[in-house]
Amino acid sequence: MRKIVMLNRISIDGHFASLNESSDGMDWFIPDPEVDNTVRALNNPERYTQPATLLLGRKTFELFERSWVPYLDDPDAPEMMKTVAQQLTDMDKIVFSTSLNYTDWANTKFYDGDLISVTTELKQKEEENYIMIMGSGSIVRQLADNGLIDSYVLILTPVISGHGKPLFSDGKKSELDLTYVKQFDSGNVVLKYDLPTNNE
After folding, report:
1. CB under 8 Å to 49, separation ≥6 — which residues?
2. Domain of 44, in residue numbers
C-alpha cells in the first residue's frame, strides 16, 4: 500500500499559512536550502528523485499553479526554480474541488467526489511512489481524522505568527511516534512523526 506523507511549514503557534492573501500565505517563512534538501531526502530516501503524487485542495492548487507554472517558460528564471517547477509539472496532481475542473497544467486530475474513498483507492494502487500533501489544511484534517496519513513532516519555523490558518483544529486525537528531528542554523527544525505500526 502506498504511503501518504504530509509536508507543511508551521509557525510555533501552529499556523501553516498566513491570512494575508497577497503574500501567498508565505510572509513568515524562513527559507533555507539545507532544510529543503533534508526534507526531500527524508521523505523518500531510496528514490526521492522520482515524482510523488501530489494531493491538493483547490486553494493550494491555485497557489502552486500561480507560483510555479510561470517559471517553466521564463528564460531568466533561476535554474533551481525552473527545476522545481518542472518537478511539480511532472508529478501526478490530484485536486479536490467542487468548483474547479480544468487546467492547462499537465498531469492534473480533478475530483469533486468523496475525499476519503478516492484517497483510500489511491493508497491501494500498487505503485512505488508515495503520495504527498502540501498545504491543503482541510484535506489534512479530514485524512488525519480517518487515519490515512502515514507520516507528518513539519518544518517548524522560529516565528510566533500571531494569526493565520491553523493546521489542526477540532480534529480527532491521534498518537504519533517521533522518528526524526534536525535543527538548522536558520532556526528551522524538521520534525517527522509516523503513525504507530499497530495503527497501519
Report:
1. none
2. 4-199
